[in-house]
């Protein structure tokens, strides 16, 4: 993972048995060359035991050994007796047997049989190893018998020498074969271990590369040996650098991280801290950093420090979302439990109010009715959240004419709230159909108008509603109320947030949920009225998905910008 590169696969290398085969093949070439030089030197010195055909046999053996070394490839360890072993072990036995029987130059050639015996024991099967040792023992006994016929006085000595030599070759074959079997087992275990380690390294890198948290691996000199994409983004690294290694000391903004790494190397203990990172004109990033010492070896320079980086904004947002989800579940459960007792209270108050005649008592009953209605509205808003989140959307009925629906809803709202003089409506999207259910659009528009009425002035046209077509269908609700505080604006569409103590804080949240369900977008800005009035006011807008005028209901054309 160093520098963001993919880890290289294990380098192909010759196994121990391949190297042993190459060693035996090279040794055979060397033995053949030495024999050829030795016999040729004896021939030059006039030795009558070295004939021309004997030199020819050694020369042929040298060429054959060289051809096997250059042209042939090693067989699998433990292979059965096949032509490759015939061309090597068989040729060795024949050549060395001829030299031993002829006693060329009076030299004892029996030790040369160790080459084919070892080759068969290390590279072949158990049967091949013991068979080669047996063949060598039989050849030595046959040579001793032939020599005993020529010199009867040395029969016991020659047979004893041949027997001891054959027994030694059997022992050599057995021990070498056992060592070869153990080497094969260890090599197979090492091969499986390397494969498992390589696969684990790939899995680890894949996990680290896709991890949302940043990870830096730093050496004692402050050089970053590895960094995943999340860490590079948190460090505001220039993308043009690609996978180049970083130096924490090269940027003063990274000094807190470098200091944490130095403390970790010095103390050997993990550290954690909140760090602010800035590079150039990029905004400040608040990061929660923690360190761990890893890969510690016998020397201090072998250690590495791993830094884990988490964006505090994401952590806070995730925590806030979890809290809101828990609060929503609890509020829904509480609302279900409150609704039945609240209905009983309202009904009992209505019955009691019919029996009251004194104005003070009727005033108290009216106060109970008013607050019970308020509680009922809050309960319904809380339950609306659950309904919106679980209600199935019917795409076949989700296309309406924007101007007609908005005009009708505005007239109904103005009549109910006696606010016709304060409301101005401007329709600018004729024949435009939007992908929205009528009841959901009514709830959104009524909620935005209620908010506008609560904060707008009493002047004529203090509230203005406008629609527009153009590149995308848009609904705008403007009011001349005071500007929102920045703290209020940041949390405007969050559930259970309100600047008033008498509000549940769910209205705008439900509007946002309904818009998201229909692929629309709701937002807020401070700006002038849509009719051209230069006065600044609070503007809530909804950008819709449009439906083609010629298409059936529910066929969506595009998303408003």
Automatic annotation (TrEMBL):
<dbReference type="InterPro" id="IPR005467">
    <property type="entry name" value="His_kinase_dom"/>
</dbReference>
<feature type="transmembrane region" description="Helical">
    <location>
        <begin position="52"/>
        <end position="72"/>
    </location>
</feature>
<keyword id="KW-0067">ATP-binding</keyword>
<dbReference type="InterPro" id="IPR036890">
    <property type="entry name" value="HATPase_C_sf"/>
</dbReference>
<dbReference type="InterPro" id="IPR003594">
    <property type="entry name" value="HATPase_dom"/>
</dbReference>
<dbReference type="GO" id="GO:0000155">
    <property type="term" value="F:phosphorelay sensor kinase activity"/>
</dbReference>
<keyword id="KW-0808">Transferase</keyword>
<dbReference type="InterPro" id="IPR003661">
    <property type="entry name" value="HisK_dim/P_dom"/>
</dbReference>
<dbReference type="InterPro" id="IPR035965">
    <property type="entry name" value="PAS-like_dom_sf"/>
</dbReference>
<dbReference type="GO" id="GO:0007234">
    <property type="term" value="P:osmosensory signaling via phosphorelay pathway"/>
</dbReference>
<dbReference type="InterPro" id="IPR000014">
    <property type="entry name" value="PAS"/>
</dbReference>
<keyword id="KW-1133">Transmembrane helix</keyword>
<dbReference type="Pfam" id="PF02518">
    <property type="entry name" value="HATPase_c"/>
</dbReference>
<dbReference type="GO" id="GO:0030295">
    <property type="term" value="F:protein kinase activator activity"/>
</dbReference>
<dbReference type="InterPro" id="IPR050351">
    <property type="entry name" value="BphY/WalK/GraS-like"/>
</dbReference>
<dbReference type="Pfam" id="PF13188">
    <property type="entry name" value="PAS_8"/>
</dbReference>
<keyword id="KW-0472">Membrane</keyword>
<keyword id="KW-0597">Phosphoprotein</keyword>
<feature type="domain" description="Histidine kinase">
    <location>
        <begin position="333"/>
        <end position="548"/>
    </location>
</feature>
<keyword id="KW-0418">Kinase</keyword>
<keyword id="KW-0812">Transmembrane</keyword>
<dbReference type="GO" id="GO:0005524">
    <property type="term" value="F:ATP binding"/>
</dbReference>
<feature type="transmembrane region" description="Helical">
    <location>
        <begin position="109"/>
        <end position="142"/>
    </location>
</feature>
<dbReference type="Pfam" id="PF00512">
    <property type="entry name" value="HisKA"/>
</dbReference>
<keyword id="KW-0902">Two-component regulatory system</keyword>
<feature type="transmembrane region" description="Helical">
    <location>
        <begin position="162"/>
        <end position="184"/>
    </location>
</feature>
<protein>
    <recommendedName>
        <fullName>histidine kinase</fullName>
        <ecNumber>2.7.13.3</ecNumber>
    </recommendedName>
</protein>
<dbReference type="GO" id="GO:0000156">
    <property type="term" value="F:phosphorelay response regulator activity"/>
</dbReference>
<dbReference type="GO" id="GO:0016020">
    <property type="term" value="C:membrane"/>
</dbReference>
<feature type="transmembrane region" description="Helical">
    <location>
        <begin position="20"/>
        <end position="40"/>
    </location>
</feature>
<dbReference type="Pfam" id="PF25323">
    <property type="entry name" value="6TM_PilS"/>
</dbReference>
<keyword id="KW-0547">Nucleotide-binding</keyword>
<dbReference type="InterPro" id="IPR004358">
    <property type="entry name" value="Sig_transdc_His_kin-like_C"/>
</dbReference>
<dbReference type="InterPro" id="IPR036097">
    <property type="entry name" value="HisK_dim/P_sf"/>
</dbReference>
């Amino acid at each position: 993972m160093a520098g963001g590169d993919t880890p290289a696969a294990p380098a192909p290398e010759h196994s121990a048995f391949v190297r042993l085969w190459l060693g035996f093949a090279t040794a055979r070439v060397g033995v053949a060359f030495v024999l050829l030089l030795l016999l040729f030197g004896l021939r030059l010195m006039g030795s009558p035991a070295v004939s021309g055909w004997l030199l020819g046999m050694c020369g042929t053996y040298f060429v054959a050994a060289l051809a096997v070394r250059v042209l042939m490839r090693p067989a699998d360890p433990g292979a059965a007796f096949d032509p490759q072993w015939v061309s090597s072990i068989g040729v060795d036995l024949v050549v060395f047997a001829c030299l031993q029987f002829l006693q060329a130059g009076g030299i004892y050639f029996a030790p040369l049989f160790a080459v084919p015996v070892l080759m068969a024991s290390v590279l072949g099967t158990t049967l091949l190893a013991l068979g080669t040792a047996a063949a060598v023992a039989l050849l030595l006994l046959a040579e001793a018998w032939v020599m005993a016929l020529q010199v009867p006085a040395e029969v016991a000595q020659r047979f004893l020498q041949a027997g001891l030599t054959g027994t030694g070759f059997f022992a050599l074959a057995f021990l070498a074969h056992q060592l070869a079997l153990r080497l094969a087992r260890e090599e197979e275990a090492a091969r499986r271990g390397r494969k498992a380690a390589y696969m684990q390294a790939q899995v680890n890198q894949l996990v680290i590369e896709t991890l949302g948290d940043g990870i830096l691996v730093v050496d004692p000199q402050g050089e970053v040996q590895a960094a995943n994409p999340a860490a590079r983004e948190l460090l505001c690294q220039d993308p043009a650098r690609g996978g180049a290694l970083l130096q924490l000391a090269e940027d003063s903004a990274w000094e807190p991280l470098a200091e944490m790494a130095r403390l970790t190397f010095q103390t050997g203990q993990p550290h954690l801290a909140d760090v602010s990172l800035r590079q150039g004109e990029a905004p400040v990033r608040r990061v929660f950093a923690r360190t761990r010492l890893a890969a510690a070896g016998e020397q201090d320079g072998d250690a590495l420090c791993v830094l884990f980086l988490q964006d505090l904004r994401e952590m806070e947002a995730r925590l806030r979302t979890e809290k809101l989800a828990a609060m929503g579940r609890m509020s829904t459960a509480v609302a279900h439990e409150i609704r039945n007792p609240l209905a009983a209270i309202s009904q009992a108050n209505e019955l009691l109010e019919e029996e009251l005649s004194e104005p003070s008592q009727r005033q108290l009953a009216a106060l109970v009715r008013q607050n019970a209605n308020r509680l009922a509205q809050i309960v319904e808003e809380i339950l609306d959240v659950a309904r919106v989140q679980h209600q199935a959307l019917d795409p076949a009925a989700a296309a309406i004419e924007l101007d007609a629906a908005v005009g009708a809803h505005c007239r109904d709202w103005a009549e109910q709230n006696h606010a016709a003089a304060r409301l101005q409506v401007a329709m600018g999207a004729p024949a435009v159909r939007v992908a929205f259910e009528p009841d959901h659009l009514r709830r959104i528009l009524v909620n935005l108008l209620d908010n506008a009425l609560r904060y707008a002035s009493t002047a004529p046209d203090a509230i203005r509603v406008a629609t527009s077509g153009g590149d995308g269908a848009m609904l705008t609700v403007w009011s001349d109320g005071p500007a929102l505080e920045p703290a209020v604006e940041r949390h405007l569409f969050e559930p259970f947030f309100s600047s008033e103590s008498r509000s549940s804080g769910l209205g705008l949240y439900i509007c946002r949920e309904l818009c998201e369900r229909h692929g629309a977008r709701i937002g807020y800005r401070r700006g002038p009225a849509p009719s051209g009035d230069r006065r600044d006011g609070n503007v809530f807008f909804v950008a819709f998905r449009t439906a083609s005028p010629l298409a059936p209901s529910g066929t969506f054309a595009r998303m408003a910008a």
